């Protein structure tokens, strides 16, 4: 009998996942030596195998009963959503974008794969407040300000540019036809973070 090290098992899993050899992965998962290693990577492999075989309850159980390192949260959130999408798809057929939105609202991420920070329109509240503050100072940020915002918010350059473009458009729409005597209202509109 061949005994693999943890690193060797990780490499084997990675190769089998890339080649979509889920039968071989399943065999490996039930082996005794695989069970000796319980870390996030091996649990993630188990989740992917269960998802492949449409074993959704096992996917949910594994995700909800282990605190994962934050570096895996995004991938696990995608797997959580995908499991729910597939489960609903077997019942209702093809899912539309609105269906997926409703499913995500109905099945929020468990605390094991979510940092607890609220989101609004896909942007974390803290990031939104930071962008609004920057918008109050300058509606057209310089390149260096954009680079700084990218680093501070973990958003891409395109996301920053789009956010400012959309914010300027909403700001113009709200202020269209107003006169200068409405200064108090203008200040209120600038501070979206209070709402």
TrEMBL record:
<dbReference type="GO" id="GO:0005667">
    <property type="term" value="C:transcription regulator complex"/>
</dbReference>
<dbReference type="Pfam" id="PF05920">
    <property type="entry name" value="Homeobox_KN"/>
</dbReference>
<dbReference type="InterPro" id="IPR001356">
    <property type="entry name" value="HD"/>
</dbReference>
<dbReference type="GO" id="GO:0005634">
    <property type="term" value="C:nucleus"/>
</dbReference>
<protein>
    <recommendedName>
        <fullName>Homeobox domain-containing protein</fullName>
    </recommendedName>
</protein>
<feature type="domain" description="Homeobox">
    <location>
        <begin position="131"/>
        <end position="174"/>
    </location>
</feature>
<dbReference type="InterPro" id="IPR031701">
    <property type="entry name" value="SIX1_SD"/>
</dbReference>
<keyword id="KW-0238">DNA-binding</keyword>
<keyword id="KW-0371">Homeobox</keyword>
<dbReference type="GO" id="GO:0000981">
    <property type="term" value="F:DNA-binding transcription factor activity, RNA polymerase II-specific"/>
</dbReference>
<dbReference type="GO" id="GO:0006357">
    <property type="term" value="P:regulation of transcription by RNA polymerase II"/>
</dbReference>
<feature type="region of interest" description="Disordered">
    <location>
        <begin position="174"/>
        <end position="195"/>
    </location>
</feature>
<dbReference type="InterPro" id="IPR008422">
    <property type="entry name" value="KN_HD"/>
</dbReference>
<dbReference type="GO" id="GO:0000978">
    <property type="term" value="F:RNA polymerase II cis-regulatory region sequence-specific DNA binding"/>
</dbReference>
<feature type="DNA-binding region" description="Homeobox">
    <location>
        <begin position="133"/>
        <end position="175"/>
    </location>
</feature>
<dbReference type="InterPro" id="IPR009057">
    <property type="entry name" value="Homeodomain-like_sf"/>
</dbReference>
<dbReference type="Pfam" id="PF16878">
    <property type="entry name" value="SIX1_SD"/>
</dbReference>
<feature type="compositionally biased region" description="Acidic residues">
    <location>
        <begin position="181"/>
        <end position="195"/>
    </location>
</feature>
<keyword id="KW-0539">Nucleus</keyword>
């Amino acid at each position: 009998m061949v005994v693999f090290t943890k690193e060797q098992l990780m490499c084997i899993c990675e190769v089998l996942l890339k080649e979509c050899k889920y039968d071989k992965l399943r065999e490996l998962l039930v082996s005794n030596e695989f069970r000796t290693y319980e870390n996030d990577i091996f649990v993630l492999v188990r989740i992917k195998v269960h998802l492949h075989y449409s074993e959704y309850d096992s996917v949910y159980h594994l995700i909800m009963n282990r605190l994962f390192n934050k570096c895996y949260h995004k991938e696990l959130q995608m797997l959580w959503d995908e499991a729910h999408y597939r489960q609903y798809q077997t019942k209702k057929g093809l899912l539309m974008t609105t269906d997926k939105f409703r499913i995500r609202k109905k099945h929020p991420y468990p605390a094991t794969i979510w940092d607890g920070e609220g989101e609004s329109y896909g942007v974390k509240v803290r990031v939104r407040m930071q962008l609004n503050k920057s918008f109050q100072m300058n509606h057209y940020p310089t390149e260096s300000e954009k680079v700084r915002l990218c680093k501070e918010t973990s958003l891409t350059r395109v996301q920053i540019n789009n956010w400012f473009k959309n914010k300027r458009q909403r700001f113009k729409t709200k202020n269209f036809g107003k006169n200068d005597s409405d200064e108090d209202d203008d200040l209120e509109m600038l501070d979206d973070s209070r709402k």
